[in-house]
Amino acid sequence: MTALQLNPDFAIADEQSLRALFEPTHALAIVKCQNSLGEHAQEFIRRSPFFCIGTQSSEGKADVSPRGDPPGFVKVLDERTLAIPDRPGNNRLDTLSNIIANPNVGLLFLVPGFDDTLRVNGRASLTNDPQLLTSMSVADRLPKLAIIVNVGEVFMHCAKAFRRSHLWSPDHFQDRTEMPSLMKIILDETTGASKDGDEMRKMDEDLEQAYRRTLY
């Protein structure tokens, strides 16, 4: 495939040039932004089993991380404060170390079957308060810490992206077997995957067992 060569003459490099391409912001898109969690935002979060959190390092390196658990796992402490348990992961700690360096975060909450989403922006901190962590235990396993988000901006996001993508439509679900397994993808792009099919199947089975053993 031939790489597309971008013409620098068409680069959009300032906000004035950007906004000149679009109609003015719709008034409702401005007034819908709130600085606290209203009744409906709180209910949306309680229903959500999944969200993504965006962070940045002190050098401006961006990262987005998915987080999931049973609905209600993100606790609404009050209209300006959320608490998020940190479940076991790969221990890269990208999100957590970024929060220490730069507390500004963006959250995007999803509810299965809902085409609209909830966006929350704010400033985050980390805590290992035993009382809070105990309230977030699953199968008698406590998270090592929790992310506290002080809410600065809240608003609902329209359904266009989900309508375009048909994300929840079973008719548009793709066959996972049409791509290699996670283990094979990682090995192909790093040390090289084994050509032995039995060995790769064993690695895939070991990963599934690790999921079950370390989910919490």
Automatic annotation (TrEMBL):
Pyridoxamine 5'-phosphate oxidase N-terminal domain boundaries: 38-139
InterPro entries for this protein: Pyridox_Oxase_FMN-dep, Pyridox_Oxase_N, Split_barrel_FMN-bd
The name this protein goes by in its record: Pyridoxamine 5'-phosphate oxidase family protein
UniProt source species: Rhizobium ruizarguesonis
